[in-house]
Design brief:
The complex is a heterodimer of chains A (545) and B (329). Chain A has 2 domains: 2-201, no CATH class; 210-518, no CATH class. Helices cover 47% and strands 5% of the residues of chain A. Chain A contains 25 helices and 7 strands. Chain A starts with a helix and ends with a helix. Chain B has 329 residues and is mostly helical. Chain B has one domain (2-294, 304-321): Fumarate Reductase Cytochrome B subunit, CATH 1.20.950.20. Chain B has helices at residues 2-20, 26-55, 86-99, 101-104, 123-141, 152-161, 173-191, 193-198, 201-223, 228-239, 251-266, 274-280, 308-321, and strands spanning 107-112, 115-120. The longest helix of chain B has 30 residues, at 26-55. The relative contact order of chain B is 0.15. The chains are: A mainly alpha (545), B mainly alpha (329). Chains A and B meet through helix 4, helix 5, helix 7, helix 8 and helix 10 of A and helix 2, strand 1, strand 2, helix 8 and helix 9 of B. The complex binds protoporphyrin IX containing FE and iron/sulfur cluster (2 copies). Residues 108-109, 111, 122, 125, 168-174, 184-185, 188 of chain A line the site of one iron/sulfur cluster.
């Protein structure tokens, strides 16, 4: 992936960005999809749509085709859908009405910074919907039209929505800066719902959703495949650390159900984080289990619709109940945590069968999770370190100079900022921060979240990733940073291509990978390599012997 | 285009009372009927808008978190940028409403070669605050035209506003500030090509209208003296529901009044409703305590799920072959 990106694009070309808007009035929705290849995603395949009982277009289409196979009554469906959502979501109604177009959000979006396309300014993205809202619901819009930013709903408008609402990663950075908190991510979510009602959705969302629905994880790996992967990883772990571990799967009566994004056991560099989990759970003797039915933390439904969030999320509590665990622990993932933190307790019935999470090692009661009964692994590990319950040798990470990328959702839909930093300060000696406008609540998206981490839109991904890439480059040049850590499966999947492009030489890893490296395990032989099998600092010669 | 349209509209709105002031019967219309109508439209419109918003529920608790959340006891959390309690939310909202907290964060991203650098950018925040507070102070100062005796706090504000004692009549600070701030906001929209691109009549017009109101007010106070006593008679008369129509007041006064009525009447139907909306914004007015306190969605409905039984039914054979535990053999 990364190499093909390099062949096709060059940083100096991508970085030649013209921020001056065109002279045409923005209400013209025409998009030349053919010319804009590299900026949009393929539409959802019918098999996945059907499996999920979703509306299927009349024809198979790619966005650069003329005919998108819309149903006859597409206009009715959209307008009725919009009306329904205005009645259901106060957020939408208020956001449609109160934007003053002050422009504070404009240069806060990574897609605008990286592309200069004025419709990637969050305010303009929202105007794409607002213009229809005005025409349909306001008197001024009906009479004065374009003068007050109102326009008719046409098929071209729908295509324009498809183009731009799949150029928003729902990262909420704009919302932090908006004086009214207008959250373009919320608008994007609702427009995507509308589009899906007339059969317009992208494949890198509906197929992972269909897979997750059926098999529990987004790659569609069947239960025995999950088991194989985990056991293979356990063997690998033994080879690296010399310690044999157990991997409990679908174990009834365990104390804790552990849910991580499935990429942790299927993809690199996620895999090393998985080894980190193994090390930690084994060392503290946690009575836990993996689940194959709920083998995906990352809820791709979030990128599709509120219904779909709920359809996938239902598995978490159902599985916790079936297995009879006491509480749930969640691994390193971004959008997974948006759902667990902001949606789960509202969408599902109260999990009265669970207990308020309590660390069996330190006795800490996680009171802030008393309703959902679900704790983030970073919270759990930070608590262990704070109580001195694990022995750490941070010098085992001395070959790394890590920096930390806050993922959008934990940062701006949760506020999980200190825990990972506390952990990193305890497991590494060389941790450095990127510039303050690019971290914590100001963090920049990887540019590939919310279902956009696919190949056909690589140009837009590289553009959207430019602010993050630029910040990584900064610490690479000034502090010799050589690894970008994160707690998000999408980040781990997409940042490597970005780093290769914007800051070549910087690797990508996870926080618990660093924990696994530093963790001194009972009875372990001398550790010569890290979890990647790379020699530790001062142990390089061992390799050559 | 939409700017020219807005300017044209403003000129028409100025011309109506300018010409009308000398037509018999018009002062009654401009001084009594239109002001009452405008206030009525405002009150009804405002309430309807708020009810309209409030009718839609808040299905999910989705605050935008702008700081550390409340989690472990020993980790200091951002009480106001990421509130966990009701009072935290109250402070967060107060900071937004009185100090434009979020706008204060504003930065400016610039491309230098292949790098992006961020500079602090507080001009909009400063001009925005200057405009709103000047507007508020001027609004309060106007009470003196509606009630007799003048309430103490109005005199006090007036005293501080004229604190520097320059000019005769004494220059009010807010008069200068509001014009400067409006000028900045207008120029900003005009000169920044992105803002010009995205502004439409609904953005230009309120700025121009308020600038028109402020300028006519300033003209009356400092340059073309009008009969203040008659104006006050009208004001007190309106408020006590026994209106008197003053005769022979300078048309400038009618222009000022007519523009104010336009502002009042259009308020509920324009972006100026951000005054009400800011209180209802679900990303700001909710506590980030989702994992501790369950938020209830009134329209929560059941969706089709894939149960474990269905899952095991489909995969029972492979699970059995892989020696995995099964619920049903
Ligand atoms: C609770 C009360 C209010 C709050 C918290 C508030 C807040 C804000 C903020 C944060 C902005 C964006 C920044 C700026 O352009 O200054 C703004 C814009 C604006 N406000 Fe208010 N406002 C309030 C009431 C009002 C009222 C009563 C009016 C006028 C009658 C008004 C007129 C405007 C206008 C015209 C703009 C747009 C400025 C532009 O186009 O650049 N606001 N307001
Ligand atoms: S910051 Fe908010 S009010 Fe200002 S233009 Fe953006 S969305 Fe509109
Ligand atoms: S949510 Fe993120 S990607 Fe979407 S408009 Fe806002 S800043 Fe851009």
């Amino acid at each position: 992936m990364s190499s093909s990106a390099e062949v096709k694009f060059k940083p100096e070309e991508i970085a030649r960005i013209d921020y001056s808007p065109p002279s045409e009035h923005w209400t013209d929705p025409q998009i030349d999809f053919e010319a804009k290849r590299g900026n949009w995603c393929y539409s959802g395949v019918h098999k996945s749509l059907k499996y999920l009982d979703l509306p299927v277009p009349k024809t198979k289409f790619a966005p650069n085709d003329q005919d998108w196979g819309l149903p006859e009554n597409w206009k009715e469906i959209i307008l009725e859908g919009l009306r329904k959502r205005l009645d259901r979501f106060r957020s939408l109604k208020v956001f449609m009405d109160i934007c003053v177009r002050c422009g504070a959000c404009a240069d806060k979006c990574h897609f605008f910074i990286g592309s200069g396309d004025p419709k990637n300014m969050p305010v303009m993205r929202a105007e794409l919907l607002r213009s229809i809202y005005r025409k349909e619901y306001t008197t001024a819009g009906k009479i004065m039209g374009k003068m007050v930013g109102a326009r008719d709903l046409t098929i071209d408008v729908l295509k324009e929505w498809y183009y731009y609402f799949y150029q928003c990663t729902e990262c909420r950075r704009c919302s932090v800066f908006c004086p009214y908190g207008i959250d373009t991510a919320e608008i994007t979510m609702l427009v995507r719902e509308l589009l899906a009602e007339v059969g317009m959705s992208i494949d890198w969302i509906v197929t992972p959703v269909a897979n997750s629905f059926r098999t529990g994880n987004h790659l569609g790996i069947q239960p025995h495949g999950v088991k194989d992967s985990l056991e293979f990883a356990a063997d690998d772990f033994e080879e690296i650390t010399g310690i044999k571990i157990d991997v409990p799967i679908n174990k009834k009566g365990a104390e804790v159900l552990f849910i991580a994004p499935s990429a942790d056991y299927f993809a690199e560099p996620h895999y090393y984080t998985l080894l980190g989990y193994f090390a930690l759970f084994h060392e503290i003797g946690l009575d836990y289990t993996w689940s194959t039915y709920a083998s995906e933390g990352g809820n791709f439904g979030l990128f599709h619709s509120h219904d779909m969030i709920k359809r996938l999320n239902a598995k978490t509590y159902a599985e916790a109940k079936r297995l009879g665990v006491k509480w749930i622990l969640g691994g390193e993932c971004g959008h997974m945590w948006r759902v667990y933190h902001q949606y789960m307790s509202t969408m599902q019935d109260e999990p009265s069968f669970l207990e308020v999470p309590k660390s069996p090692i330190t006795g800490t009661v996680f009171d802030h999770a008393r309703a959902t009964k679900m704790v983030h692994l970073a919270e759990f590990t930070a608590d262990l370190i704070r109580h001195g319950k694990i022995k750490l040798d941070p010098s085992r990470n001395d070959h790394w100079t890590p920096t930390y990328h806050d993922s959008c959702n934990p940062a701006r839909a949760m506020g999980l900022l200190e825990e990972p930093r506390y952990i990193l300060q305890n497991v590494c000696n060389n941790f450095v921060e990127m510039p303050e406008n690019t971290i914590r609540e100001n963090t920049f998206c990887c540019g590939s979240g919310a279902g956009l981490g696919t190949d056909e839109n690589m140009e837009m991904r590289l553009r959207g990733g430019m602010p993050r890439g630029s910040a990584v480059r900064y610490v690479q040049e000034n502090n010799d940073a050589n690894i970008l850590l994160c707690m998000c499966a999408i980040d781990k999947a997409t940042l490597p291509a970005l780093c290769d492009f914007w800051a070549p030489g910087v690797e990508v890893g996870g926080v618990h990978e660093m924990v696994g490296n530093a963790l001194i395990m009972t009875g372990e032989p001398e550790r010569k390599t890290d979890l990647r099998g790379q020699p530790l600092k001062g142990k390089e010669e061992v390799e050559n012997e | 285009m939409s700017l020219w349209f807005s300017i044209f509209l403003l000129i028409v709105l100025i011309a109506i009372p300018l010409i009308g002031a000398s037509i018999p019967g018009f002062p009654l219309l401009l001084g009594v009927i239109i002001p009452y109508a405008a206030i009525a439209i405002f009150l009804v419109g405002f309430v309807m808008r708020i009810i309209g918003w409030a009718k839609s529920p808040v299905p999910f608790r989705i605050p935008t978190t702008s700081g550390q959340e409340k989690s472990l006891d020993w980790i200091k959390y951002a009480k106001y940028d990421n509130p966990h309690t009701f009072w935290g939310v109250v402070v967060r909202m107060a900071l937004e409403i009185f100090f434009f907290r979020s706008l204060f964060r504003n930065t400016k991203a610039e491309l230098r070669g292949q790098k992006i650098v961020y500079g602090s950018n507080k001009y909009l925040w400063a001009a925005g605050l200057a405009f709103h507070y000047s507007f508020l102070v001027i609004f309060i100062r106007h009470f003196k035209y509606f009630v007799e005796p003048i309430p103490g706090f109005v005199s006090l504000i007036q005293f501080f506003d004229g604190f520097f004692q320059v000019g005769l009549p004494i220059l009010y600070l807010t008069d200068a500030l509001i014009v400067a701030a409006l000028g900045f906001l207008l120029l900003r929209r005009l000169l920044d090509s992105r803002l010009r691109h995205l502004s439409h009549a609904a953005d230009w017009f309120p700025l121009l209208l308020i600038l028109g109101i402020a300028s006519t007010g300033i003209l009356m106070r400092y340059f073309i003296k009008i009969d203040v006593v008659s104006a006050k008679e009208l004001g007190t008369g309106l408020l006590s529901f026994s209106p008197v129509v003053p005769i022979g007041v300078n048309p400038l006064f009618y222009i000022h009044l007519f523009l104010v009525c336009t502002l009042i009447a259009m308020f509920p139907f324009s972006k100026l409703m951000h005054l009400g909306g800011i209180f209802l914004s679900p990303t700001r007015n909710l506590a980030n305590n989702n994992r501790a306190v369950r938020h209830v969605n009134p329209w929560n409905y059941d969706v089709k799920v894939h149960t474990y039984e269905e899952y095991e039914d489909e995969f029972r054979d492979v699970m059995k072959a892989a020696d995995m535990p099964l619920d049903k053999e």
